[in-house]
Amino acid sequence: VSLFSDQMFFLKTFPLKLVRPFSVHRLPILTLFTKDPCPLCDEAKEALQPFRHRQVDISLQENKVWFLRYRWDIPVFHLNGRFVMKHRVDTVLLDKLLQDAEIDQDY
């Protein structure tokens, strides 16, 4: 049995659509820089509930770099590691940026 025939058996048994059940592209990463107490951050967290995101608490010792950078500007929002907005979330703009990021990753 040759390697080629093994590959053909595999491809016939598992069509290509099933061989790759997940996308090779990563989802856009939305990050909220926050701390407690912060009323604007609380508003942002509520507004971001429909969006998949991660939160970085800048008051933690391991996030001191972010504290020094954003202590007067939180909440701050990054998309794929790049600053996109601060203070208040613009959900319409954010939704557009997320859609654009997903489209960009398809190419």
List the helices and strands and how they pair.
Blueprint: H1 3-13, H2 16-19, E1 30-34, H3 39-47, E2 54-57, H4 64-70, E3 76-79, E4 82-86, H5 91-106
Parallel strand pairs: 1-2
Antiparallel strand pairs: 1-3, 3-4
Please explain how this structure is put together.
The protein is α+β, with helices and mostly antiparallel strands. It has one domain: Glutaredoxin, CATH 3.40.30.10. Helix content is 44%, strand content 17%. It is built from 5 helices and 4 strands, in the order ααβαβαββα. It has a 4-stranded mixed sheet with strand order 2-1-3-4, covered by helices on one side. The longest helix has 16 residues. It is globular and about 35 Å long. The chain starts with a helix and ends with a helix. About 9% of the residues have low confidence. It comes from Echeneis naucrates (Live sharksucker). It holds the Pfam family Glrx-like. Belongs to the glutaredoxin family. InterPro entries: Glutaredoxin-like, Glutaredoxin-like_YDR286C, Thioredoxin-like_sf.
When the domains are counted, the total is 1
CATH level-3 fold name = Glutaredoxin
CATH architecture level-2 label: 3-Layer(aba) Sandwich
Assembly level? single chain
Q: How many strand elements?
A: 4
**Count of alpha/pi helices:** 5
Helix content: 40-55%
Indicate the low-confidence ranges by residue numbers: 15-24
Kindly report how far apart the N and C termini lie. Answer: 39 Å
For CATH, the homologous superfamily is named as: Glutaredoxin
Q: Describe the global form.
A: globular
Using only C-alpha atoms, the radius of gyration works out to 21 Å
Please give the largest β-sheet.
Answer: 4 strands, mixed
Q: How much of the residues is beta strand, in percent?
A: 15-25%
